[in-house]
Amino acid sequence: MKNNDSKQQPELSEYSIADNLVDLYWFLQVVDAGSFSTLINQKGLSKSSLSRRISQLESRLGVQLLYRNPRFLTLTHIGAEVYRYAQDMVNAAQQAQRSVERARSIPSGTIHIVLPAILNHWLMPVLRSFKNIHTDIQLSIHAADNTAETAMQAIDLALSLSTPPNNSSDIVARPIAQLSFVNVISSSIKNTEHAPQIEVCDSHNATPTTHSMQVDSHLSALQAAQAGFGFAHLPLCACSSGLSSGDLKYINHVSEQRTLFAFTQPRRSITLATRTLLDYLVLSIADNTVTGIAPVTSTSRNYQQ
After folding, report:
1. 18 falls within a domain
2. Nearest-angstrom CA–CA distance, 117 and 144
3. Which of 97-111, 161-175, 235-249, 250-264 has the highest mean pLDDT?
4. Domain stop point among 105, 137, 163
5. In this structure, is residue 24 part of a structural domain?
């Protein structure tokens, strides 16, 4: 049974809480200063405005917080309790501010990354080297070839071989590397003249042609080529070990240069950790010795927004 004698406390609205947070700050300042006049002289505030804030706070809370005296202030019993909570509130706000300042000065936190799995052999050692240097940064890595289907709001950095979206205000595209693509096929296939092509297709609803096979990623295309399904157009850096071992061979000497892009959030949303990783990747590519990977050309930089 409900006790009819008990009084239910009224719930504070979001607006009341927001107003209280501001007024509790000034309540704390008044108490610490010792009087209204002292705080007014220190901060150059309006006496009527400051007094009104404290009165409104008392009115919303339904209690008296201060005994007012021309020379000094005295806290009521409940006022002393509220004062302690106000101190905790301000301390928490100061800690939040310091946390932001630390995050802006020292790279830390988690970077959510999406990258094509076909480049793992090259990128994983680079990311591991980065992690050894920046121990306060955690990496959350996901594989995806088609970043257009990735929700960029949940991603800090996406490396992609896809063309950047046009006129997007949600994504900034930066070219960071040039990759050589070549046509390779399993060495077990002797007659390569009529070998079918293994195509990487972004759409799950696409229908393969009579003379092709379709897969959803470059890594699957590599594995299909190694299994003897046909030839694939792939990054040379991912095929070099198979070419060296003799498991793969060139079907022809046709090659092309494709740009590897870094997709990020707009500039103001990029964390210091993400910016640090992006700079590290650019420097690593400049010093890279892996065959088929080169720094971007000046014309590629026109994509940067």
Report:
1. yes
2. 7
3. 235-249
4. 105
5. yes
Phi-psi region of 21 (alpha: psi -120 to 50; beta: other; left: phi over 0): alpha
Helix/strand/coil (H, E, C) string of the chain?
Answer: CCCCCCCCCCCCCHHHHHHHHHHHHHHHHHHHHCCHHHHHHHHCCCHHHHHHHHHHHHHHHCCCCEEECCCCEEECHHHHHHHHHHHHHHHHHHHHHHHHHHHHHCCCEEEEEEECHHHHHHHHHHHHHHHHHCCCEEEEEEECCCHHHCCHHHCCEEEECCCCCCCCCCCEEEEEEEEEEEEEEECCCCCCCCCCEEEECCCCCCCCCCCEEEECCHHHHHHHHHHCCCEEEEEHHHHHHHHHHCCEEEEEEEEEEEEEEEEECCHHHCCHHHHHHHHHHHHHHHCCCCCCEECCCCCHHHHCC
The domain spanning residue 297 has which CATH number? 3.40.190.290
pLDDT for position 302: 43
Q: List pLDDT tens digits, range 189-234.
A: 998 988 999 999 865 445 555 567 899 899 999 999 999 999 999 9
Does one domain contain both 189 and 237? yes
100 and 51 co-located in one domain: yes
Q: What is the pLDDT of residues 269-301, one digit of tens each?
A: 788 899 999 999 999 999 988 999 999 875 444
**Average pLDDT of the segment spanning 2-15:** 51
Same domain, 75 and 171: no
Domain span at 38? 14-105
In a domain? residue 2? no
- Contact at 8 Å (CB) between 100 and 70? no
Q: What is the pLDDT of residue 168?
A: 65
* Same domain assignment for residues 157 and 73: no
Residue 161 shares a structural domain with residue 253: yes
pLDDT at 244: 94
